[in-house]
Amino acid sequence: MTDQTQHHTAAEINATANDEFKRSFSSWFWGSISAATLLHFVVFALLPAMRAPDVSVNTEAMDAIEIPDEIEIPPPPEAIARPAMPVITDAPIEEDITIADVTFDANPVDNLPPPPDEIETDLSAAPQWTHVDVYPFLKNRGEVERALEREYPPLLRDAGIGGTTKVWFFIDETGELVKTEVHTSSGHTALDEAALKIADVYEFSPALNRDKPVPVWVALDITFKTR
Questions:
Q1: Are 214 and 173 in contact (CB under 8 A)?
Q2: pTM, 2 dp
Q3: Which helix (H) or strand (E) holds 222?
Q4: The pLDDT of residue 221 is above 90
């Protein structure tokens, strides 16, 4: 067999194999697609059922904020009438209205009335002024600041609502806090109630009148504000 004949025979064999591959390509392609589709169905069928977690939001009723009534400003007082000018008169005065001098001869000591009995008053009954030379000072400022953050009503704090409550403190001669009450309201009942709770945390030194400890009323501001 010559070289040319061998060449033609090899070309025919290669052409036949190529044609067979082209003819079988369609079967291989669609067979692969079908197998992949079937495999996906099997995988999804065998996978466990998956559910999304419950993300519903539970709503709670919020307490209504008490808004103070509108403050009515009273009208200004009427102007005080200018007093009349004194007028010199020539009318005669028949009675002698001269006040006599006060002397011990006219008013002997034995005839003087007795001094009034001393009336003991309960100083803690109501706020009143007491003479002191040294006022009490706060001894636990850090604890008071922590109480202020703890007792701030969350509803008002989250809403950005603050205020100042002036509180009366009655401190006895040992420095012990005996009584508290609201001096001036902040305008919010919740803030006033929280201020009284914080006031119970205060610790003071005793007030001094010269060098003697004395009971005293003091008024301090307790302020709530958002940062």
A1: yes
A2: 0.49
A3: strand 216-224
A4: yes
